[in-house]
Amino acid sequence: MAEADRYEDVVRTRSDEKFAEFEDTGKGLWGRFHELLHTTPAIVPLIVLLAACIVFGLILGSKFFSPFALTLILQQVQIVGVLAAAQALIILTAGIDLSVGAVAVLCSVIMGQFTFRYGVPAVLSVPIGLACGTAIGAVNGWLVSKVKLPPFIVTLGMWQIVLAVNYLYSANETIRAQDIEAQAPFLQFLGTKFNLGGAVFTFGVVLMLIVVLVLAYVLRSTAWGRHVYAVGDDPEAAQLAGVDRHRTIMSVYMLVGFICGLAGWVMIGRFGSVSPSATTGVIGNIQAITAVVIGGISLFGGRGSILGAFFGALIVGVFELGLRMAGADPQWTYLLIGVLIIAAVTVDQWIRKVTA
Amino acid sequence: MSKDTQGTPVLEARGLVKRYGKVTALDHCDFDLQPGEILAVIGDNGAGKSTLIKALSGAIQPNAGEILLEGRPVSFASPNDARAEGIETVYQTLAMSPALSIADNMFMGRELRMPGLMGQVFRKLDRKRMEDFSRQKLSELGLMTIQNINQPVETLSGGQRQGVAVARAAAFGSRVVILDEPTAALGVKESRRVLDLIQEVRARGIPIILISHNMPHVFEVADRVHIHRLGKRLCVIDPKDHTMSDAVAYMTGASVPEGVAEPA
């Protein structure tokens, strides 16, 4: 090639080639804080949670800071906490699941009806209920991944279908708590209480903590977890980089169905009875999405952590109990949660900016 | 430098056909990549370069024809199959997850697990090993002075991202590295750096397929130039014997190279 053609060489000789150095450019304290939030998004809801606890503690004193009150919050959020963990998984893949609450209710109904209508031992009907949850998740996943329908539409339909099946199958019959206690106490296993230094826990609370911690570990430290983030972040890129997109999405939806089944079992423990008209079926999805959003998980997928969703669920629980103890009108709870949702997304937008 | 015919080509394609409905993107296309060379693939938009490259990297499956790797017929059902054979591709979109770290992206789809129980039972990733490997590969290509291998890819500049993508391909591409328009989105200085990188990779003996629209870049680094036209290979030229205008004329059909019968 002729010398005259090498017009770009001038760059090579005159530049100092600082093209790809990865240097810390001294961002100062504020910049570092921003970077910390960027890499550890669960910190924001944790700060909000602690701040809410401190504020309510100052207002209510020892009434709020008693082991009893604090564990009551855990007991009250156990169902939403489990559902939020499931919802967080779906939202990380840039999807949304409107059917989580309905699936949980149907699974609890299946566990109850199999035991009482067909005489299946409770230790078997619980796994059957969990399997049904997983199967519904598989249908959702297949429709999203193979038929390429938007997750919102798929789960909006599935929500209605599951709720209807739930009423049709159960004939809107509630199984009473006394009957379960007498004939199939295993169904209420997760409601078992135990005392730990004045604090009352249930196995349901323990299960919620286990679900959250296991998911946090799996998402952070296994290849599958990294694939969930990659698929949520940019599905095309993930596929080209060698991630099996279909398998990842299917596994996420099936796991979510399974976790919803667990939530159904937690419900029986919490309420004692099996009721097809439990409010979880109607508002469980919104409660779970609220917790996830307050927990700082991006609805666009690929960003956030499951711990954030858990903190989000706790924040809602703290607000509900704290305001009730302070004697405020319950509408204040909804108002403040609404403010929190908007604030959380605003903060999320700011965090996602690469440079502050 | 031209190694037209000696030895078995590293990667070879014979009579590849790919149709999308009524459109024939590849029309009995041939392809040869010789050991240790940089082969540029040029062609007008819609000539079928991308389709050819996707077939070679396993992203699409041709309707007919065969692909030979070191003389042995292979068929790739997915990019992972091609990757398992040591063919790595740097896509124009880079195929990186912006929110994940450099190390996560380097190992996406082929993560390393901890040895022993932690890895087998708990599937725990060996972050330290992946980070060390990424750091080492980046510095081997002169891409790094210090650094935070855990910073998200979205915090990098366009050139840095390209650098990471090339490093990923070079680190795992034991047989062939395919680069699709690596300089298209870059500034002059960054392009320069990427071209140096390409030569760096070739210097380690890995043959490179370079798809580019940038004639000066093609003529600077390529040993041979594969000119693609109307879904097939029109000819292969030696950049030292031809001018850029020749190449452009061939690929647009303005003139016909010697010994080639141009269809009407």
Uncertain regions spanning at least 5 consecutive residues of chain B: 1-5
Task: Give the name of the CATH architecture of chain A.
Answer: Orthogonal Bundle
Our Rg estimate of chain B from Cα atoms comes to 19 Å
SSE order of chain B = EEEHEEHEHHHHEHEHEEH
* Strand-pairing-aware structural class of chain A: mainly alpha
Assembly context of the chains: heterodimer
- Average of pLDDT of chain A: 89
Radius of gyration of chain A: 24 Å
Strand arrangement across the biggest beta sheet of chain A: 1-2
CATH topology of the domain at 35-60 and 77-99 and 152-224 and 234-252 in chain B, what is it called? Rossmann fold
Largest sheet of chain B: 6 strands, mixed
Strand residue content of chain B: 15-25%
The biggest sheet of chain A, with number of strands, parallel, antiparallel or mixed sense and barrel status, is: 2 strands, antiparallel
N- to C-terminal separation of chain B? 34 Å
Tell me the strand percentage band of chain A.
Answer: under 5%
Question: Tally of extended strands of chain A?
Answer: 2
Number of helices of chain B: 9
Kindly state the percentage of residues in helix of chain A. Answer: over 70%
Protein name (chain A): ABC transporter permease
GO molecular function, one term (chain A): transmembrane transporter activity
Main location (chain A): membrane
Transmembrane segments (chain A): 42-62, 68-91, 98-116, 122-144, 151-169, 196-219, 252-272, 278-300, 307-326, 332-351
